[in-house]
Hints:
This protein has helices spanning 8-16, 29-32, 36-50, 52-62, 84-110, 116-137, 142-151, 184-199; strands at residues 66-71, 74-77, 157-160, 167-172, 175-180. By secondary structure, it is mainly alpha-helical. A hairpin with a 2-residue loop joins strand 1 (66-71) and strand 2 (74-77). Helix 3 (36-50) packs parallel to helix 6 (116-137) and helix 5 runs parallel beside helix 8 (184-199).
Amino acid sequence: MSPDTPDPERAADRTDAPGGSDHPTADHPAAAGRGRPVWIALGAALVLTGLGAPLGLLWAAVAPGTPVLKTAGGAIYATPQPEQPIAADGWFSLLGLGFGVLAACALWFLLRRRGPMELFAGALGGLGAALVAWQLGRRVGLGTYHRLLATAPDGTPFTKPADLRAGGVDWFLHVPVPYGDLLLPAFGVAVTYTLLAGWSRWPSLRPEPDGDGPPVGPELSSAPGEPPAH
């Protein structure tokens, strides 16, 4: 058999030999590492969701409460058209957008891997953070409000805690769908991360070697007497 003729027995031996196949198997490290970016993205989404707790406490601290009066039929606004509910929505919107921008920058500069999966994880984490911030922030002082509403005499003035009027969760086909202000943190993450990717000077979205190291492979010379070119 000539050297140029393939030997089927040798080919079979190479295929059956350990490490002879180029396709990764379940035991191959490359196959085991495929799920690692997914877990990192999920972890980033969970971390962002957990950061919704301090965001909600900050919102409850800066958003003004609405003055109300106790009546026989319940609580009514102390003024006909209070501005405090609008201010609460505005503070939540500003804080949510700022949170989204900072979260996108953190994902971009702290994670080694960049791409659509990280963008989706950031948007998901921003939405989760908004839900946590809303539910936690609106409950700060809510117990005192209900106690005064139940026990205070008529005509007693007190304050209703901040809540959202331009955002919440609606039900569509028995599925909870957030809307309004709750979408702003995820929107801030998506826009900021997309802009960072668009302005990146690396096609792979990750920093590449600058090429100043030693040459790899043979050196080429364009003409006799000239220094070799890398």
